[in-house]
């Protein structure tokens, strides 16, 4: 394994385990029963999707972290930092050689890392935006049309899908 790949792996693992373990105590303390959708909605922050998207642009993984998606935040941060390290590495290799063919080879790898970095940044911004937009989406398995807690005077069809 070349050292840029090793750097990507180390940064990813540090980010994934560091951020996840750091935030797991807060997540466990505020966890609620799985079938209580009103409690889940109360625990989620509702913020401007545009602000969350800009956070994700400013700092790798900040938008996902703000949306309480800690594993995704670590994944995004590790991926973006790893791609920046790979780009710097290939750029230094291109500067350090006098052979034209090797220089083009290293520049091609550098450009590929830069394109993947751009795609990762745009995808993380889109993910943060969508997640913030759907923060108040009701995830309950109850598909009845009655308002929560209402009792109907007559026949009511309730469909529950549970696993």
Radius of gyration: 22 Å
Shape: elongated
Label the structural class: mainly alpha
Number of continuous helical runs: 6
DSSP, total strands:
0
Q: What proportion strand?
A: under 5%
Average pLDDT for all residues: 76
Helix content: 55-70%
How many domains would you count in the coordinates? 1
- Distance between termini? 42 Å
Q: Helix and strand string, N-terminal first?
A: HHHHHH
Major β-sheet profile: none
Low-confidence stretches: 16-41
Describe the protein's architecture and organization:
With 163 residues, the chain is an all-alpha fold. The protein has one domain. The protein is 67% helix and 0% strand. The protein has six helices and no strands. The chain has helices at residues 3-29, 37-43, 49-58, 62-66, 70-95, 100-133. The longest helix has 34 residues, at 100-133. 22% of the residues are buried. Residues 16-41 have low confidence and may be disordered.
